[in-house]
Hints:
The protein is an alpha/beta fold. 38% of the residues lie in helices and 18% in strands. Strand 10, helix 11 and strand 11 form a beta-alpha-beta unit.
Amino acid sequence: MAQYKILVINPGSxxxxxxxxxxxxxxxxxxxxxxGEEWATRFKxxxxxxxxxxxxxxxxxxxxxxxxxxxxxxxxxGLLRPVKSGTYIVNxxxxxxxxxxxxxxxxSNLGGLLASHVASLGGIPAYVVDPxxxxxxxxxxRLSGIPDLPRKSLLHALNMKASARKAAVELGKPLxxxxxxxxxxxxxxxxxxxxxxxxxxxxxxxxxxxxxxERAGTLPSLYLKELYDNIQDPKKLKTILVSESGMYGYxxxxxxxxxxxxxxxxxxxxxxxxxxxxxxxxxxxxxxxTYPESPDAVVITxxxxxxxxxxxxxxxxxxxxxxxxxxxxxxEMGALAEGALRVLKKEEAARVYxxxxxxEV
Length: 361
């Protein structure tokens, strides 16, 4: 049996997570902190590539790993064009789109670029798995109510798909036979029906759905115009909506654990914390209504899933839907390695970017 050795790359805004995985699991891993590096704050995302490349090469040297001895390299997918879920070959078209930031600027865009560099050194394949631009929406899910404003898919696909696979194992059924409602609860919240393996709807975590620890979620549309008229700065408005609203806007902190503790004695903290759970529960119930059958399970994952208090507040309102499976945290590195392994073992075929399909209900 072949012994696979996989390099996993997961770039964040101030970190680069690197790991070597085998079939058995993690061999070695590091999280490189770039907070003190001048380039991490002064350079645009794509211009950080040479510095990140150096960090990856140093990691390989420290661990005596030659690129040519790797089975493949896999990275977190960036803001790409809409694609179906799966493991994608990093090709010239993808590299071009990542460099040009066709979907916007984000640290995850560096993942495919770094993977491409390592692959060129070792003559090995490079992949990305389930980027945030995964789009498996049904036709009816795309309509917003304004013809020129279609709803767009943007969700935490990597962790949600990995959690769906865990749920399928726990429920003892193939994923393609299940109807799940999955709630990813991190700094952003993504809630989606996973119907027969496809994420056919979702709240765009930057624009819709529950308010989160820092995001506004769905807002009254006429008030949004008033807010813009008062600010007159699109970038500032986006900052307010995506990183200065939600729990932070009400309480001045993004630390959900601190708010949970404060909620024991402070009325406002208690109200905001319960309201956030209330809105998550509403979104779960809405997504459960997207198909004319009861879900097999509700799956709750992400950082806030570590809180039994928060998940308990949700379950008070969603328990009638069926079993609840809680998978705390998110193992992005493991999910990336598993996506690459499925291709290496020929359990699924690697996809070629760009690829797009629309699924009917």
